[in-house]
Amino acid sequence: MVAVRTAELLRNTNTYGVFMYVLGPARNELETGSIPVFRSSKIIRKKSVVGSVINYGINYVSLRQYKKRMKIDVAISIASAANLLNILTKRRERVITSLRGVKSLYSFTSSIKFIQRKTDKLFCVSKGLMDKAQEYYKLDRRRMEYLYNPYHLETILEKGNETIEAEYLHPNTIVTVGRIEPVKGYEHLLRAYAKVVQQVPNSQLVIVGEGSMTQALMGLCGKLGIKDKVHLIGYRDNPYGYLKNSKVFVLTSENEGFPNALVEAMAFTAVISVDCETGPREILCKEETQEEIRDIRYEDYGILVRQMEKTRDYTKTDLEKSEEILAKAIIHVLKDEKLAEHYRQVAQRRVQDFSEEVYLQKLISMIEERG
Q: What is the H or E stretch that residue 208 is in?
């Protein structure tokens, strides 16, 4: 969780007194043991519209009192609801808010534009999202920044050494990791893979994750005749072993704020991503252009393909144009060992730019900024 890790990184500098205020009920991952965590004891746990409104009021009073009592100098909020309360309870402290994804930009709490404009600094998880936020909020560019999510690369690499099931140790494994939800576009990947199997029968597709569309995807596998080649293995606490033992990782999302799974995959393997908004292009390219991708583009750190059509059809078996292109890119990587190895190596170099050290340095500069 980014909020917890941010607090831990700041605490470890031995420069700041770090506290956390949580809007909702207790969650295990927030109990860091060394960082004081505060929440109102009056929060209503039962979910309802009325309850949410009441909880907002409770948190407003509680957070304002907490800031005053603790003499907070800088208040950093992660997520839309927290941003709103952070700004509304502002006293003399410096307020830093954040945007985590395209969808959050247009959420109810984020869309109260005149409130968001009162932030001292707004940071976004990607440059692309920052550009959209500037256009939407009309904020002065000097009050905006992009800050990629922090990744503890040593831990990620170490976890990649853990043993996985023998059936997934295959030289031509395609892997993807994420929630099994419509926005992830997995139906496109399945149709593309049906084409891949025709040219690379000695291959398999592993999907790590769980969600509401699992049964629909399994049904589509049956229709496509690839049920024995596709493994929907559900959620895994540690997905890194599957990434390490894959030939290529594929991202097919309709949109992303900043795709964590893509960056984590780059620590281990070559990657292919659709050119969705926002994130993949700036992760995989040294220099971004506004040129639309209509086919395959072999970028500096990975392969980009055109966006998928937003059909969300889990019954059709005929390939769309974008799926044909995606299949072509996957086949190229599976058949060309030199290409796969090249993109594995450049991806591993690129991922160093998303380390916790880089994140912390940039965050501190925002905290210490004045004026």
A: strand 204-208
Residue 228 three-state SS: coil
Nearest to residue 233, comparing CAs of 148, 274, 173?
173
Q: Distance between CA 194 and CA 234 in Å, rounded?
A: 21
pLDDT at 151 over 90: yes
Cβ 75 vs Cβ 94: under 8 Å? yes
Q: How confident is the model at residue 107 (pLDDT cuts 50, 70, 90)?
A: low
C-alpha 60/C-alpha 88 separation (Å) is 8
User: What pLDDT, on a 0 to 100 scale, did the predictor assign at position 116?
Assistant: 75
* DSSP state, residue 148: P
CA distances from 219 to 174, 299, 318 (A): 20, 34, 15
Q: How would DSSP label each residue in 284-335?
A: H-SS---PPP-SEEE-SSSEEEPPPP----SS--SPPHHHHHHHHHHHHHHH
